[in-house]
Amino acid sequence: MPVVIAAGIVLGNLMPFIEGGPTVRASRAGQILTAVGFGILGLVTVIYSLLFLVVQSSNTTFTPRLNLFQDDPWIWRTYALALGLFAFSMSAFLQMGDAIQVSVSLPLFAIAAALAVIALMWKIQAKAFASLQMNFILDMLRRNGRQVIEGLYPERPASESSPPQPPAPTGGRPVRWRGSQTTLQQLELRRLVSAADSLDSVVVFRVGVGQPLWPGATVAEVWGDLDDDAVLASFVGGANRTFNQDPLLSFRLLADIGLRAVSPAINDPGTAVEVLDAVVGLLLVLAPRDLAVGAIHSPGGSTRVHLVLPVWEDFVGEGLDELLVASMNSPMVLTRAETNLSRLADHVPPDRRSDVSSRLERARQYLGAGHPVSPSEPDDPVPHQEVSR
Q1: Per the domain annotation, does 39 fall within a domain?
Q2: Digit-coded pLDDT (tens) for 352-366
Q3: Spatial distance between the Cα atoms of 255 and 249, rounded to a whole number of angstroms
Q4: Which residue from 44, 78, 61 is spatially nearest to 131, judged by alpha carbons?
């Protein structure tokens, strides 16, 4: 943002001295510059106030953990461009001074920049209004979740079973978090693997992306001469979870939306059904992929880093368990859950079918028995109790 404002000031001080070509009266150009400068500033204020209200309404409707525009670069680029245009208009107006004629390129440039800012703000406003639509949110979560899954987990032949995760060693030198409490957003591994390989060291992470980092807590263990600072430099923290390297985030957000939909205050089973469709769709994307990718090797083939990554059961549980329990009194949701899980069980590899079958059995018990079943004991029916009058 400071760079764009500085560029606007520089251009505003240079363009009034352009000679040659068509000219326009300086007074008329000054009127255009002041109108554009203050007009665009007022429009930005209105649009961003509206954006704030839309985001607040969206977070209340869906989940407060849904950061729709916080990391969108075009939000801040548009804001910076508008401030740069304001700085340009004011600088050029002051630089004209007592000039009688100025180049026509000066007001034309201001008008063109104003139209560009208005076009960007219209795009942001359209995106903000679309964020109030359930289908837009679910599609965004599906796309982001699929992108993370495809970037992190390679595909494997459907006939092969998932290889076991190489066991990580224990008992190394602990590396403790030195900063304030934050959330692990991603890990910068390229430099870490290179440094560990050069010092013949091994790093085992004890926290995964999306988990909290507490002051003084052990976040990794090291074997070898690798310095603690090199390990801690690979951590990227922040206030919120992001989609960069967090494959469980889409499942968590979808479950949050589904839980809110089936709550007594909202009572919107149709939304919960759409959430189930989205969760099962992501599980189908994940099912044929190799999840044992937590061991990172150096170019020489030696294992240098062990990561904490979710397994298949974590994905199934994150997306389905809480939603099934909350939907015990919603036949519409349970019926769709039975249908979707039956199809999912037919398409997952045999070694992952039991986790799906257990949730399918639970949904059938909730739907058929008409009374709660403990999530920890899905195979044990709860006896019906007579209510004394």
Answers
A1: yes
A2: 999 999 999 999 999
A3: 10
A4: 61
